[in-house]
Amino acid sequence: MEESTVQSMEIAIRGVSKTFQDGTTALQPIDLQVAAGEVLVLLGPSGCGKSTLLRMIAGLEQPTAGRILIGDRDVTQLPPEKRGIGFVFQQYALFPTMTVEENIMFGMKLRKIGKQEQKAKLEELLALMNLTELRKRLPIQLSGGQQQRVAIARVLATDPMILLMDEPLTALDAKLKEHLRLELAQLFRKLHITTVYVTHDQTEAMAIADRIVVMNKGVIEQSGTPKEIYLKPKSSFVAQFVGQVNRLRAKVKTAERGNVLDLGFYQLPYKGESRAVADIDVFLRPEDVYLTQEAGFSARVQDVIFLGDHYRVIAESGGQKLVIDVGNDTLIHEGDQVQLEIREDKIIYA
Ligand SMILES: Nc1ncnc2c1ncn2[C@@H]1O[C@H](COP(=O)(O)OP(=O)(O)O)[C@@H](O)[C@H]1O
Ligand SMILES: [Mg+2]
Fold it and tell me: Whose CA is nearest to atom 25 of ligand 1?
């Protein structure tokens, strides 16, 4: 598809909160802006309020307080069909007696466009979603991944100004999920439609997002590009939820040339913000610890797990556990005594 002609809309969420009838508070008041054409991923554990927020943008749920704007239109009181949104759910919900093309055409028939235009749009969507060969099939003759591609095509057929997706890959098996995740990432780059995408899977979020909003217990923990979220997590929750990470106990100690971070097995200049001398936890990614031939610090290998493209090694030093990743051609065994180094500038003070 050529550069899309779709008019992208920004979304503004202002002080939106949700407490359900039974008293469950799913969302604390939230402020969030989604730029026109941006792919924003809401990421967080089950029950943190992602779907509730998405459903309120869609108009399927009414906020307890606050306002939602799409473009410069306040849509808070509008029903879903008046908001110009397309919603893709976890379950595909295709019409079982309609073929692939009939399912896609269904979305277009709701709009008043000419027969010629409909046909052209159908061909475009079949090609875009790699469905041309499958156009005459019924949903039951398709794999889960193919069905979800049809569901997405059907939603795109309605020319939504906003695309909302709630865990659209969750029902698929691991291999298919990985495949469709990359397809979706490419699709979004072509579409330029403002998209809010919900997932609890951080790998999926990384692959798809322009920006990730990490949620926990009804609040936003952090918002940033995938890189910012991974490299500069602002809280221990974000550090631990996104990617693998070592959590290390440390003491902040005073020394002549400024404070020192003492990990027990290793000391380095303290770069955190707090001035207090205290016990703290810091974080370090597995890729920021490495084997060395030189004098590093000594560690004992407790476990070696082969993961195909690398080994994940569990080591122990000074009573602390360290998970590290090493190349799959490394000679390393349980019980080995090894020398390790850490990339000091990669220590995360969250
Ligand atoms: N209709 C409802 N009535 C009462 N509580 C609800 C309802 N829908 C969701 N919740 C609760 O609100 C919280 C957030 O739910 P949800 O937004 O579905 O989380 P997520 O999508 O992040 O898994 C959860 O505690 C959930 O049990
Ligand atoms: Mg959900």
Answer: 47
Give the domain ranges of the chain. Answer: 11-240, 244-346
Q: What is the DSSP string of 200-242?
A: S-HHHHHHH-SEEEEEETTEEEEEE-HHHHHHS-SSHHHHHHS
Pocket of ligand 1 (CB under 6 A): 20, 22, 24, 26, 44, 46-52
Q: Give, in words, the CATH class of 11-240.
A: alpha beta
CA 346 to the chain's CA centroid: 22
Determine the distance separating the centroid of ligand 1 and the alpha carbon of 196, expressed in angstroms: 18
Look at residue 245 and tell me whether its pLDDT is greater than 90. Answer: yes
Residues, the chain: 350
Task: Check pLDDT > 60 for residue 2.
Answer: no
CB atoms within 10 A of CB 151: 23
The amino acid that residue 274 corresponds to is S
Backbone torsions φ then ψ of 282, nearest 5 degrees: -125, 170
Q: Which fold has domain 244-346?
A: OB fold (Dihydrolipoamide Acetyltransferase, E2P) (2.40.50)
